[in-house]
Amino acid sequence: MQSLIILGRQPKLGLAELECLYGADKVHPIADTAAAIDVDPCLLAFDRLGGAVKFAKVLDTLNTTSWDEIGRYLSQNGPKQSEKMPQGKLHLGISAYGFNQSPKHVQRMGLQLKQAIRRTGRSVRVMPNNESDLSSAQVIHGQLTRPNGWEILIIKNNQQTVIAQTVKVQDIKAYARRDQSRPARDAKVGMLPPKLAQIIINLASGLLPEEARQSVCDIPSYQQIPKPHFEDILLLDPFCGSGVILQEAAMMGYDCIGSDLSERMTEYSQTNLDWIRSWQNTPINSEVKIDILSADATTYRWPKQPTVIASETHLGRPFSSIPKEAALKEVQADCERIIRNFLSNIGPQIKVGTRICLAIPAWRLANGEFAHLPLLDSIEVIGYNRVSFRHVLDEQLIYCRPEQIVARELLVISKQ
Length: 416
Prior knowledge:
By secondary structure, this protein is an alpha/beta fold. The protein has 9 helices and 17 strands. The protein has helices at 11-22, 67-82, 103-118, 136-141, 172-180, 194-205, 244-252, 263-277, 325-346, and strands at residues 3-7, 27-30, 34-37, 52-62, 90-97, 124-126, 149-157, 160-169, 230-237, 254-260, 290-294, 308-312, 355-364, 370-371, 384-386, 398-399, 406-415. Strands 9, 10, 11, 12, 13, 14, 15, 16 and 17 form a 9-stranded mixed beta sheet that branches. An 8-stranded mixed beta sheet has the order 2-3-1-4-8-7-5-6. α6 packs across α7.
């Protein structure tokens, strides 16, 4: 166990993402909230993981889940660990995962550790717990990943407890800028979150080659991490909308082709990509090529053969309440026709084994379950194999907020 990831709000998506990039053998789920990865921490591409909120190093594994015993362990060993850190006030935070402990109990453990460290003569500030685990915003605000910062993660794993230290959290300001500050937006069309776009791309990309794993530890702290460019990868988004997937794929270093039936949407994509490339410190390598055109994905022949396809397809009209059966069947038929026709059209244009990840619609029903496209039961008939996962079931690949009726189901397939 070399690296540890705290997964996001919908952990199954993050788990599938890790399995795609690093292989099922190297991914080890820890309860429902985390995963250990047998990958050198220097080679873990944390910034491209949309389903991971914290990146940590494992400090110890305890053969107990007793909260009192964990507290005694931290009080005994915490001061020794703090002595290895730079002098000055220590900023401390505690996050617990998988334990039935209130924020007050977690906070109390932090205060006990504070007292143990203060007995060594060191000043300590403890980040208060509003929940049993600290948010990324709290970790950033509390300076817990800086040299004098220390967020301790306490993770229940069956009959054991993993103790880890947070190294990095998601850059929430960067995500917000790429999402909320985009110059061309259309709320009526629906907004694809950048984190979900990253997950879709990673599920489509598959195993990350060794040569693509950049060692950040070899780069001096005063130097900027080079922006990647993978010349042998061409990503196609045939329903590009306002260009969120193109934006995130370009940041990963992939050349892209984006198309949309709506000329207005292709103009939005171009405007948004020009905007992000105009930043003083743009996250996109200058050699990355992006072509955007207006085209019908169900009939168009793309001029270049894509190696990866990642897209949010037509999701149909939105619903503010559980739809009646007739309305649901109507919108299902419309979405089914477009997506099936696209897959039939693109099939002859790509090589065998080409991976595709499509965000397709699923609809919440009154019983809490989801209605799916009939397409899922006949994917092999039209020339594709569904990619299966060891740690995640197909039906768990759904992105949906509690109040939403129309969900995004992530369909991962490969050309037969």
